[in-house]
Amino acid sequence: MKAALGAVIGAAALVAALGAQAGSSVRPGFEPQWFTAISATEFWLGGKGVVLHTSDGGRHFGRLPAPPAGPASFADSRDGFAFGWQTQLYATHGGGRAWHRLALRSVLAFAASGGTAYAVTGRCTEDGFCLDVRFQHSAVSSDAWISAPMPFAHAVPNFELATRGSNVWLFGGSSAGRYRLRNLLARSANAGRTFVTGTAPCDAELAAELEPVSARIVWAFCPTGLMGIAYRSTDGGARFKPLLIPHCCPNSTALAAVSESVAVASANAADSHLVRTTDGGATWRSTRTPRGITDWGNIVFKGRVGLALVSIGSRGTPALLRTTDAGTSWQAVPIR
């Protein structure tokens, strides 16, 4: 992997930008731990007991109450959901101003798009197997959840849900004998009413990350025992082709899709450079990022605008970065 083409700002300046908390809505010492975005300008940023909301791309933030469990995920400006691993599901229909508990318990996977929210729920035992696993869905604006049969027999708790419009992808594992596990990917084009199930390149015991950008193109990252593998599908997930990313990929790799042909990735090792492809993963080039980044966490794109929650310096200070050129260059977002 080549060295980054240049630094926008240094680590010290990045910390200073993060600490430029001029507004009274921000608690002193606020450190972001998660974020969720619904557009290029509107996103929510959560820390310990604090949620900040912006609708102007981060120029101004307002303070909201923190959800009772886990990080939040918003489907639109009003409807959001919050949960942790195997916790109860909470919802807001007022943009995060108030939260209420839903009947869904033990959330194992969650996703929302096209006005519909989807969840996999179940009770998992200490030996890694799950009981009473269900596929559930509801309109994001209501709390009327409907339980539907799982598209395949389940075995392990490492489910992954991904959505794009009315398309739904559900990854998991099914027992194929006493000591074997089948890695399966179920695909739906009608909002989960029916599924077509096939094999998947990822190991269900180690989970998967799916990044659909259209009904046809799905980017994916699969952890392995030591090194993970990045993939791309051009037929909606029926088949995947491995991608050769330079000096990659440990299981800590961050992969984020921008479009059908553009994506960014960081091995999150050594200097944690971010590389970018514009030809569907055939070639990768370094991007312009601030110095001192030690880890690229969550990366989300809404068109050419992207947000990334990163760690900087030896202390791993969290910071929020923003790009407006599809990941070519990144700048810090002052939280004020």
SSE topology sketch:
Elements: H1 11-18, E1 34-37, E2 43-47, E3 50-54, E4 62-64, E5 72-74, E6 80-82, E7 90-92, E8 100-101, E9 107-113, E10 116-124, E11 130-139, E12 146-148, E13 160-164, E14 167-175, E15 181-188, E16 196-199, E17 209-212, E18 218-222, E19 229-233, E20 241-243, E21 254-257, E22 263-266, E23 275-277, E24 285-286, E25 293-302, E26 305-312, E27 317-323, E28 331-332
Antiparallel strand pairs: 1-2, 2-3, 3-4, 5-6, 6-7, 7-8, 9-10, 10-11, 11-12, 13-14, 14-15, 15-16, 17-18, 18-19, 19-20, 21-22, 22-23, 23-24, 25-26, 26-27, 27-28
Care to describe what's here?
The N terminus is likely disordered. The protein has a domain of 123 residues. The strands form 7 sheets. Strands 1-2-3-4 form a 4-stranded antiparallel sheet, with no helix packed on it. 2% of the residues lie in helices and 42% in strands. The protein starts with 10 loop residues before the first helix and ends with a strand. It is globular and about 45 Å long. The relative contact order is 0.15. With 336 residues, it is an all-beta fold. The chain contains 1 helix and 28 strands. The longest helix is centred in the N-terminal third of the chain and has 8 residues. β2 and β3 form a beta hairpin.
